[in-house]
UniProtKB/TrEMBL annotation:
<feature type="transmembrane region" description="Helical">
    <location>
        <begin position="34"/>
        <end position="53"/>
    </location>
</feature>
<dbReference type="InterPro" id="IPR020846">
    <property type="entry name" value="MFS_dom"/>
</dbReference>
<dbReference type="Pfam" id="PF07690">
    <property type="entry name" value="MFS_1"/>
</dbReference>
<feature type="transmembrane region" description="Helical">
    <location>
        <begin position="244"/>
        <end position="268"/>
    </location>
</feature>
<feature type="transmembrane region" description="Helical">
    <location>
        <begin position="209"/>
        <end position="232"/>
    </location>
</feature>
<keyword id="KW-0813">Transport</keyword>
<dbReference type="InterPro" id="IPR036259">
    <property type="entry name" value="MFS_trans_sf"/>
</dbReference>
<dbReference type="InterPro" id="IPR011701">
    <property type="entry name" value="MFS"/>
</dbReference>
<keyword id="KW-0812">Transmembrane</keyword>
<feature type="transmembrane region" description="Helical">
    <location>
        <begin position="275"/>
        <end position="295"/>
    </location>
</feature>
<keyword id="KW-1133">Transmembrane helix</keyword>
<protein>
    <submittedName>
        <fullName>MFS transporter</fullName>
    </submittedName>
</protein>
<keyword id="KW-0472">Membrane</keyword>
<feature type="domain" description="Major facilitator superfamily (MFS) profile">
    <location>
        <begin position="1"/>
        <end position="400"/>
    </location>
</feature>
<feature type="transmembrane region" description="Helical">
    <location>
        <begin position="339"/>
        <end position="361"/>
    </location>
</feature>
<dbReference type="InterPro" id="IPR044770">
    <property type="entry name" value="MFS_spinster-like"/>
</dbReference>
<feature type="transmembrane region" description="Helical">
    <location>
        <begin position="151"/>
        <end position="173"/>
    </location>
</feature>
Amino acid sequence: MLTLVYAFNFIDRQLLAILQESIKADLSLSDSQLGLLTGFAFAIFYVTAGIPIARWADHANRRNIVAGSLFIWSFMTALSGMVQNYTQLVLARIGVGIGEAGGSPPSHSMISDIFPPNRRATALGFYSTGVSFGILFGFLFGGWLNEYFGWRTAFLVVGIPGVFLSGLIMLTLREPTRGLIEQKTVTAESVPLKKVIQTLWESRTFRHLSLAASLNAFSGYSTASWTASFMIRSHEMSTGELGTWLAIIIGLCGAIGVFFGGMAADWLSPRDKRWYMWLPAISGFIAVPFMVAVYLADTPYVALSMMLIPGLLHQVYLGNTLATTHNLVGLKMRATSSAILFFILNIIGLGCGPFLVGVLSDQLSASHGADSLRLAMLYLLPAVMFWSACHFYFASKHLRKDLEAAPA
């Protein structure tokens, strides 16, 4: 059920990417405005609301928080189909961001109460497939709905079912006992935020891990936000066909990568805990040359074929990163630690990634025309992905020592 909620989270978030060329034409927007809309305007409210909601979730009923958040972001997504100008659309997306801030940290905390440390990456990897399935259905439904009915209808059709799902969550999902899997009694008092931040900051693993995840997200969110526009401008594809391709490449391949990435790390970890960081490092290094090939390809189908490997490997880090973060902190720090990780990840990844690609594209447009977006992505994204992989490797060097020092 939580994975289904997470899928709705990313359907509503990702829908804008496949619709943005139609929105750009209808509302007369620039690439910088689109990048702000898909990135910073959403991210700043998403991360700002995330930490106080996570603090609440560390001592309140997490099921109710998830259900209420789902209602808010789904309602605001449907409302996005009724806007008349850019300002109204920005406000609607801010509402989506505030709602979505209450989805993941409480869900992460609930999952870690059910699964032990040696199965946690697999469980959180399964949950994280919601990202990829959300992207899959966002591209698939958004592409065809836009082609036949327009972008406004797409927002309405995708947003309304989440409102009903929020009621189903309230009626069917049970709140797990906090500390269940460790068989520990948890007091009602919450851990001070300063203590959580101090615990994470003292972990050199977390410092490298959070930067690595943020840089990976910079590349991943930029890819998810701009690939449709890149393919439409440089290769003149229709949204229906393109949405189907991207649903398979970023959605289905991403789900396979994130789930089996977590499962492989759990399987390898009894031999060496550093596999939790080694796997995303290896995945990042392998993805880089294929990312370069995507933006240098002359034909659309060669470009799409080259996307398969990065699509498979881009999300491998997610389950491993979340599980490692939870293993570095105490029981009553989990939701807050997730929110802090997501704060860093989304400020750098979601806030800066799509926006900076849009700004660079605008700067290159005078000299390169329709290919400005292709070049902006080529110059930025492979280099950032390589940088991310380096920091996952650096994190692995401190992991065993930091796990031994983790609080109970």
